[in-house]
Design brief:
single chain, mainly alpha, 3 strands
Length: about 220
């Protein structure tokens, strides 16, 4: 078999490329393969690996890349993989997911595995995901996420735009979303369009340009 034919066959089976990277524990190469394939295609390739290889890959590429792959897995394979990881590694991967995805995934695990992973989470994150998990699957609470783009109604347009322009990861993940406006005690009171922010005076408070919102109880 010629080298050209072998190359074509490997490209037709991208999981073999990942397997080669795993054999030499090359994290940079594994991440490059994932990037080149795209997260969706890479996830399909990962599912062709043996479970022990999947675990090795998750540990090798780091929490951020691993979380991007896990997000693309069906629920059952995702849960099966997370259960095979050390609780600390699993918690780091879940930390990269949105709150609703965290709750959904933890809900697929045994109580013992879920509790072990949650014990490795930061207290505030553990509290948020515990709250989400307490709601029924078909309720508003069960469908919502605790990760929202929000600002206090007393903040100015200028301060919000400055934060949105930040390269901070905290705001990068919310780019393109309309910010929610909350009161001093954290209650949702409105929403601001991105166009409204860009066309308002920098000194204007959000309370003066926000639109009212309709909300429902989380257990409805």
């Amino acid at each position: 078999m010629s080298a050209a034919v072998e190359t074509v066959e490997v490209l037709d089976r991208p999981w073999e490329l990942l397997r080669q990277a795993l054999e030499i524990a090359d994290a940079d190469e594994a991440r490059r393969i994932v990037d080149d394939l795209g997260t969706s295609e890479a996830a399909r390739a990962v599912l062709h690996l043996e479970q022990s290889e999947q675990v090795q890959l998750m540990e090798l590429v780091g929490a951020e890349t691993a979380a991007g792959l896990v997000e693309q897995f069906p629920d059952a394979p995702a849960a099966a993989l997370i259960e095979e990881l050390d609780a600390e590694d699993a918690a780091e991967i879940l930390d990269e997911l949105d709150g609703d995805d965290q709750a959904d995934l933890l809900g697929e695990l045994s109580d013992a595995d879920a509790q072990a992973i949650m014990a490795e989470m930061a207290p505030e994150e553990r509290e948020a995901v515990t709250q989400l998990m307490s709601y029924g699957d078909n309720t508003a609470g069960g469908l919502m996420t605790s990760d929202v783009f929000k600002f206090d109604r007393s903040e100015t347009v200028g301060s919000v735009l400055q934060k949105m322009a930040s390269t901070d990861d905290e705001f990068e993940r919310f780019r393109g979303q309309h910010p929610y406006v909350v009161s001093g005690d954290g209650r949702l009171v409105g929403v601001v369009s991105l166009r409204g922010l860009l066309t308002s005076r920098r000194a204007e408070m959000l309370a003066n340009i926000m639109s009212p919102v309709t909300s429902v109880l989380p257990d409805v």
